[in-house]
């Protein structure tokens, strides 16, 4: 009845790695902040990139590259015949790395947002303006 598996369940986790990382990290962050894990906010990876000043196109490219890298890692481990429990440990290590990097990026984003909102520019002169149309006669 049970034929050969095309991929193992842990390999499937790598294939949907980045969306899964983002969802779990965002939900955990909301719970830690004592908010509903289902409440909408701007705490997803894409919003983080926007807050860091990364353009929409570059955000998309970064997300695709990160997602493909995680998928490639999982498929490479599968092809190499790495045991499932090692793959699971590697997947959890990838999630831990993602969590640390995104947490640090949120700190940077808050600082960037604070710097851009606290800029106060004034154009005041302390010297009176001198008329430039005056001519002097010898």
Question: Could you characterize what this model shows?
Answer:
The chain has 138 residues and is mostly helical. The chain has one domain (9-115). Helix content is 64%, strand content 0%. It contains five helices and no strands. The longest helix is centred in the last third of the chain and has 34 residues, at 84-117. The chain is elongated and about 85 Å long.
Short description:
The chain is mainly α. It is 64% helix and 0% strand. It has one domain (9-115).
Keyword list:
mainly alpha; 138 residues
Show the helix and strand layout.
Elements: H1 9-15, H2 17-32, H3 45-51, H4 56-79, H5 84-117
Helix pairs in contact: 1-4, 1-5, 3-4, 3-5
Q: How much of the polypeptide forms β-strand, as a percent range?
A: under 5%
Count of discrete domains: 1
The main sheet comes to:
none
Q: Average pLDDT, to the nearest integer?
A: 85
Oligomer: single chain
């Amino acid at each position: 009845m049970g034929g050969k598996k095309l991929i193992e369940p842990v390999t499937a986790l790598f294939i949907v790695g980045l969306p899964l990382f983002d969802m779990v990290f965002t939900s955990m962050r909301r719970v830690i902040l004592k908010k509903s894990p289902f409440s909408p906010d701007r705490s997803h990876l894409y919003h983080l990139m926007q807050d860091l000043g990364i353009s929409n196109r570059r955000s998309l490219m970064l997300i695709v590259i990160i997602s493909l890298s995680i998928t490639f890692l999982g498929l490479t481990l599968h092809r190499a015949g790495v045991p499932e429990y090692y793959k699971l440990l590697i997947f959890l290590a990838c999630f831990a790395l993602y969590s640390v990097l995104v947490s640090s990026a949120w700190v940077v984003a808050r600082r960037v947002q604070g710097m851009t909102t606290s800029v106060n520019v004034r154009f005041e002169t302390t010297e009176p303006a001198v008329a430039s149309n005056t001519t002097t006669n010898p």
